[in-house]
User: What shape does this take?
Amino acid sequence: MDPLNPDRPYAGIFLSDESQAELLRWWAKVVGQPLLSEVHAHHVTLAYDPTQAQLEAIPFGSEGRVEVVGWAADEHGQAVLVRSVPASINAFPHVTVATDGTPPVYSNLLLEQGFELVQGPTLTGSVEVRT
Assistant: This one.
């Protein structure tokens, strides 16, 4: 979400409670880093402030699938790189796991700087649009 304009809509796969818990367990077991102060771990953005054409192409109400394929972390953010169905238009599709108070959008920059490839869990969630 845009920290300067939090009312803009975004389409995403919003992880189920079970998948959120699975992601956090996986992070603790595989990555082994303590979570930063603000835990997010709840969605993959498919399209931020989507156009009408993008909205029409997204299967809202369906179940989305999210495969963890990488991770990155520093003192400001923790994120997992994902492959999702439906696919995200982001250059680095991800779930922000946690931040130190830095806006979650920081995950894009974090992953752009590099990441560790992994074969992580496959998570599920509902495909929705929110503001």
